[in-house]
Amino acid sequence: SEVKKIAVIAGDGIGPEVVAEALKVLKKTEELFGYAFETEQALFGGIAIDERGTPLPEDTLEICRSADAVLLGAVGGPKWDNNPKELRPETGLLGIRKALGLFSNLRPAVVFDCLKDASTLKPEVLEGTDLMVVRELTGGIYFGDKLRRQGEFGEEAVDTCVYNVTEVERIVRQAFEIAGKRRNKLASVDKANVLETSRLWREVVNRIAPEYPQVELEHVLVDNCAMQLLRRPSSFDVIVTENMFGDILSDEAAMLTGSIGMLASASLGEGSYGLYEPVHGSAPDIAGQGLANPIATILSLALMFRLTFGYEAAAAAIEAAVAEVLDAGHRTSDIAVDKSKALSTAQMGDLIVAAI
Amino acid sequence: SEVKKIAVIAGDGIGPEVVAEALKVLKKTEELFGYAFETEQALFGGIAIDERGTPLPEDTLEICRSADAVLLGAVGGPKWDNNPKELRPETGLLGIRKALGLFSNLRPAVVFDCLKDASTLKPEVLEGTDLMVVRELTGGIYFGDKLRRQGEFGEEAVDTCVYNVTEVERIVRQAFEIAGKRRNKLASVDKANVLETSRLWREVVNRIAPEYPQVELEHVLVDNCAMQLLRRPSSFDVIVTENMFGDILSDEAAMLTGSIGMLASASLGEGSYGLYEPVHGSAPDIAGQGLANPIATILSLALMFRLTFGYEAAAAAIEAAVAEVLDAGHRTSDIAVDKSKALSTAQMGDLIVAAI
Ligand SMILES: CC(C)[C@H](C(=O)O)[C@@H](O)C(=O)O
Ligand SMILES: CC(C)[C@H](C(=O)O)[C@@H](O)C(=O)O
């Protein structure tokens, strides 16, 4: 069958360790399902700053562009936190999102059975929580003009938040599509009582809504959403929102599940292209020790199979293998009750590979 | 003693009911402590839109300006939600904040003993949670230029977020002062890895910090803060942040305590002037039925005594009376376990008055 090209960005911290396990899973699916993948490693983030003097080298972009999808481990760490802007991993992250046109960030927040108790929320409140934040990723205040100037009251800084109807339409339409394939509920989050961009956002949502009559739509103000996520998390299905609100709310939503270390995410552009990465960060404190949990990265690969390649059977097989290994009681130290029995990153990866 | 002038804005929904109880408390403190208050009612919000065609009539502003402090019940309701911008209660709210120079919004999030179980968080996580969000209230994206225009990709909307050093300095300094009178911990929340206004913010915080060597400072990114509030709420003391982030985080913080219906807030300007209001909204669904809980409004009055008038003894007496009434098991329906035994708004007010 057709060879699929995957750009692999191991990145910083625990990135290389967790990506290595996902690549074992990739290889196993080649054997089992007859797929053919071609992977190419690319430098990105802190390591690219160190080795190439920029977080996003041009050839990394080329490798990503010529691939069908990107698998990313994690980037960043305290080492680069005080660098000037052009030499910071986040600058690379914003750059790659824009350069690859990844306008839509899907961040599922689900509760893993084995982690039910890891949440700080009461189990009865959490029961049934399974939501997806669809965050606009290439617009808004992240990418608008920024400046410093002298004003009447001393130096001032300016950030500009801009959205056009085209940008809003494409993300909102995608969110309606996703809701239509889930539980048919969409919450559009904005601050339309204050922001002009939010009023435009809400107009577009209301204009598109009639195309999806089966999807129940609610408009929720961002401050209220931050509360409702705590009060009734299980009542949400899909939440769609702009870049900055999505950054905040998706982290809140992921954290309330208690499963943040196990969550996968996808950043999609036009067509089937996508970048896949775990929701968790680069965890510099445990890097290089074989302690990291590779499951979020492995589930990110499953998401790539499903959303970019349409390999639903393999995606489901990977997810089932993860569930089976967890059900059998196997744990890495982050999710182990008895840390002394915790598996290493590679042991967990091997067990999942074996279970597929 | 000197006569203190209080502008009283009953507002919409349950506003008039809860304010009426706070005024009974005010009267009782005149008798007990020999204070002299002069109150003047002012129209504001939805009721002002209905009766005067604007949410913030000029004479309301005059009444507020000539007073020493403002007590506000609540404003807004579905009746005005689809009005054009100039005829919406929120527009009045933003207008009054700006006109009165109320640049600092203090929103305490504490757990009331009698409401420990009302939170969706596990009690052991919540244990000891007592934090204060200090939100900048008259700057940022709320008040920057807004516009619509035709762009390359159709209509677009723009919001501008602006902060100057003077605006940041005064709120940050106030937050350090407050932290110095509490547990000496300050978390400054920004998105300095993306926003220029946040970088300015962080510079100012770092420049002022050495003036408060006893206060332990941490910088927290807004997305991380949304997570840490859930993970370790009791580790926060004072959180200072810009307007939009403060809107979201203060609601999240209030909700996680489970006590949102009991929380008071203050909006302060230069000097001792302040506007005091409950954190909860106008609750149109229960308005006019005598069901509302007046405690948050009564505690807002106590906060006025403390912060504007320096009447610490009376403030403490009111707070002790509230605690006593709650300890004795008295509840309004929102916090009653057995709703059939719930008190009315006026009964709760009378009990607190009697207990002072
Ligand atoms: C690192 C930062 C720039 C980034 C963002 O704000 O988008 C991160 O928080 C995320 O959510 O991917
Ligand atoms: C009603 C709205 C404009 C207001 C705000 O966003 O400031 C409210 O949410 C608040 O927090 O007081």
Automatic annotation (TrEMBL), chains A, B:
Cited SMART domains: Iso_dh
The answer to whether the entry has keyword Hydrolase is: no
Annotated positions for site Important for catalysis:
142, 191
Alphabetized InterPro entries for the sequence: IsoCit/isopropylmalate_DH_CS (IPR019818), IsoPropMal-DH-like_dom (IPR024084), Isopropylmalate_DH (IPR004429)
Which of this chain's residues are annotated to bind Mg(2+)? 223, 247, 251
Binding-site positions, substrate: 97, 107, 135, 223
Q: Which residues participate in NAD(+) binding?
A: 77-90, 281-293
UniProt pathway annotation: Amino-acid biosynthesis; L-leucine biosynthesis; L-leucine from 3-methyl-2-oxobutanoate: step 3/4
User: Per the record, what are the reactions this protein catalyses?
Assistant: (2R,3S)-3-isopropylmalate + NAD(+) = 4-methyl-2-oxopentanoate + CO2 + NADH
Its Enzyme Commission number(s) read 1.1.1.85
Q: Which UniProt keywords apply?
A: Amino-acid biosynthesis, Branched-chain amino acid biosynthesis, Cytoplasm, Leucine biosynthesis, Magnesium, Manganese, Metal-binding, NAD, Oxidoreductase
Tell me the cofactors it needs: Mg(2+); Mn(2+)
**Co-factor binding comment:** Binds 1 Mg(2+) or Mn(2+) ion per subunit.
Pfam families assigned to the protein according to its UniProt record, in alphabetical order: Iso_dh (PF00180)
Boundaries of every Isopropylmalate dehydrogenase-like domain copy: 5-352
As for subcellular location, the record says: Cytoplasm
SUPFAM superfamilies, from UniProt? Isocitrate/Isopropylmalate dehydrogenase-like (SSF53659)
**Where does it mainly reside?**
cytoplasm
Instruction: List, alphabetically, the GO terms of the cellular component aspect.
Output: cytosol
**MF annotations from Gene Ontology:** 3-isopropylmalate dehydrogenase activity; magnesium ion binding; NAD binding
One GO process term, biological-process aspect: L-leucine biosynthetic process
PANTHER family to which the protein is assigned, alphabetical: 3-ISOPROPYLMALATE DEHYDROGENASE (PTHR42979:SF1)
Q: What does this protein do?
A: Catalyzes the oxidation of 3-carboxy-2-hydroxy-4-methylpentanoate (3-isopropylmalate) to 3-carboxy-4-methyl-2-oxopentanoate. The product decarboxylates to 4-methyl-2 oxopentanoate.
- Name recorded for this polypeptide: 3-isopropylmalate dehydrogenase
